[in-house]
Design a protein that fits this description.
The protein is α/β, with parallel strands linked by helices and 429 residues long. It folds into three domains: 5-137 and 307-321, NAD(P)-binding Rossmann-like Domain (Rossmann fold); 140-301, 2-Layer Sandwich (Dihydrodipicolinate Reductase, domain 2); 344-428, ACT domain (Alpha-Beta Plaits). It has 14 helices and 17 strands. The strands form two sheets. Strands 7, 8, 9, 10, 11, 12, 13, 14, 15, 16 and 17 form an eleven-stranded mixed beta sheet that branches. The protein has a six-stranded parallel beta sheet with strand order 3-2-1-4-5-6, sandwiched between helices. The structure holds NADP nicotinamide-adenine-dinucleotide phosphate (NAP) and L-homoserine (HSE). L-homoserine is lined by residues 136, 161-163, 190-192, 198, 203, 302-303.
């Protein structure tokens, strides 16, 4: 049997302890698969006194200095499961330039500074693997990098954040409040250290940047991505959507249009017959449409200790047994060229509008006139009755319309005297 591979583990929280449990539970199996043992020599944490969800791996020692991992000549691979940007960047960049391989689950780091880190890995000839960074236990990175490499990807659509999907599912099926559902997701270890990343669409945006690189070989800068989260999704819209046959989901989507890329993260109505509409709880799904393979759907747990630990361990095992040069991005160019970005105003889709209006003569006529002037055609409409003098919700589902026309029409409508609140708008997949 070959020598054990010695790793330095940075972070012993949800994912770090999940990884440790799988290393212990599947020890025999891992040995059989890769023909060697995996030994954790050092574990980096902030607070060495904290009670942990799993005992340290046998023989491992705790440290609070990240340089201990980088400077140890026995350690040939650093596994970064801390999260955050600055310390993680220091650790990963120093590890690579010291000739160590790196495995990370940190999508924030790779979305913001991936171009630099992949260049460093390329110069050092080391692996920088990140299967766990996107949709937890679902093997989407490997699928895009290797299995679908022969395809031009026409479109990638995903439910990319487990916490947001968990919250929407709980609000939808159990009528739970947003705050209670977020608290439960946090207790279960799904949420980021700063849960606003989950609910404001930022974590999904990080993942979409990574998936776009893999699918198109282009760097789509995070700051150019249109991002909207679920913080303002109301139970009323979830219920209206259900009446029309839709579920509300936080979607990340990128597609190629005329050689450019159109991408965004947004809550959307998804027809209940689509597989994406059936994805519940902390589950995630990615639908990839290749020009040769057609549509492919990947589905599984997008967050949590064991699912994410499983993806981290798969990367460690791949590096431990790999004989050839690492394949970090799936493309020989490094850094990747920047994408030609299409403005959201040009994108076309169906829309859901909920107008909060005074119930009076001529309201519907005034709204539909503005929509007609902008070329927006109505597919369905519904008004919920109310007691005299109460506001009513008027819901309209449109046919395909251009983003810029929708924006302009709603600006005109929201200025009308009978409109009592900004119009709620969601795209429809
Ligand atoms: P976590 O539970 O908060 O654990 C983070 C660990 O890193 C803790 O052990 C913490 O030490 C340590 N740490 C953080 N900053 C440190 C620093 N500056 N110096 C030393 N140690 C530091 O986080 P997690 O949920 O495991 O997530 C880890 C990474 O995986 C993140 O990048 C996250 O986005 C990603 N990820 C998470 C999931 C998930 O389901 N949770 C899924 C996919 C990807 P202390 O324990 O002493 O505070
Ligand atoms: N907070 C993330 C989520 C963890 O909820 O999807 C997995 O990346």
């Amino acid at each position: 049997m070959s020598e054990p591979i010695v790793i330095g583990l940075a972070g012993y929280g949800t994912v770090g302890t999940g990884l440790s449990r799988i290393l212990t539970d599947n020890e025999e199996w891992i040995r059989r698969r890769i023909g060697r043992d995996i030994r954790v020599k050092k574990v980096l944490v902030r607070d060495p006194e904290k009670t942990r969800q799993a005992p340290l791996p046998p023989g491992a020692e705790l440290t609070t200095k990240w340089s201990d991992l980088v400077e140890d000549p026995d350690i040939s691979m650093v596994v970064e499961l801390m999260g955050g940007l600055d310390t993680a960047f220091e650790l990963v960049s120093r590890a690579l330039s010291s000739g160590k391989h790196v495995v990370t689950a940190n999508k924030h780091l790779l979305a913001e500074r991936g171009q630099e880190l992949f260049s460093l890995a390329e110069e050092a000839g080391r692996a920088l693997y990140y299967e766990a960074s996107c949709v937890g236990g679902v093997p989407v990175i490997q699928t895009l990098k290797e299995s679908l490499a022969a395809n031009r990807i026409l479109k990638l659509t995903g439910i990319l954040n487990g916490t947001a999907n968990f919250i929407l599912s709980r609000m939808s099926t159990e009528g739970m409040s947003f705050d209670d559902a977020l608290a439960e997701a946090t207790d279960l270890g799904y949420a980021e250290a700063d849960p606003s990343f989950d609910v404001d669409g930022i974590d999904a945006a990080h993942k979409l940047v990574l998936l776009t690189r893999l699918a198109y070989g282009r760097h789509y800068p995070l700051e150019k991505l249109a991002v909207q989260g679920i913080r303002h999704v109301e139970v009323a819209d979830i219920e209206f959507a259900r009446e029309f046959g839709y579920r509300v989901k936080l979607i990340g989507q990128v597609r190629e249009v005329d050689g450019g890329l159109e991408a965004g993260v947004f809550p959307a109505l998804v027809k209940y017959t689509y597989l994406l509409a059936r994805v519940g709880g902390n589950y995630n799904a990615v639908r990839v449409e290749g020009n040769a393979c057609g549509p492919i759907m990947l589905h599984g747990q997008g967050a949590g200790d064991l699912p994410t630990g499983s993806a981290v361990l798969a990367d460690i095992m791949a590096i431990a047994k790999e004989g050839s040069a690492p394949n970090n991005t799936g493309y020989p160019e490094c850094p990747l060229p920047v994408a030609d970005i299409l403005p959201p105003d040009e994108s076309r889709s169906q829309w859901y509008f909920r107008f909060k209006v005074r119930d009076q003569v001529g309201v519907m006529a005034a709204i539909t006139r503005v929509m007609a002037e902008r070329g927006i055609s109505i597919a369905q409409a519904n008004q919920k009755g109310a007691e005299a003098d109460e506001d009513v919700s008027l819901v309209i589902i449109t046919h395909q319309a251009r983003g810029a026309d929708v924006r302009a029409a709603l600006a005109d409508i929201d200025a009308m005297e009978f409109i009592n609140a900004p119009t709620v708008r969601y795209r429809i997949l």
